[in-house]
Amino acid sequence: QVHLVESGGGSVQAGGSLRLSCTTSGYTYSSYCMAWFREGPGKERERVATITNVGATTYADSVKGRFTISKDNHGNTVYLQMNSLKPEDTALYYCALSKTPTFCYTRSESYYLGQGTQVTVAS
Predict the structure, then answer these.
(1) CA neighbours within 13 Å on the CB side: how many for 31?
(2) pLDDT tens-place string over residues 84-120
(3) Percent of the chain beyond pLDDT 70?
(4) How far is CA 30 from the centre of its chain?
(5) Which residues sit opposite 92 in a β-bridge?
């Protein structure tokens, strides 16, 4: 059974930084796509960034140049470094693992999801 556990959320002033971590277990394939999604108040869930086992990354336009997704060498921990945070980045952030190895779907329904970690950015 796949488990994902996020950590690192919190409250920060606009312009500040946070680093989210996600540790996975129970996944047996060497190929994967991992992602971070977020769901802000009154907004639809949005895919923020993805990374594959070979290190290929994608970002939503809203976070390009500010957020960086990365992984450890073992591939079971993924990070999201968030810099220059804005109030509109306030959301519940979810770590996600694609149910199909290496395929990075747009919608979260095609992923295993963690419980989420709250990020609040004050203006």
Answers:
(1) 5
(2) 999 999 999 999 999 998 799 999 999 999 999 999 9
(3) 100
(4) 19
(5) 39, 118
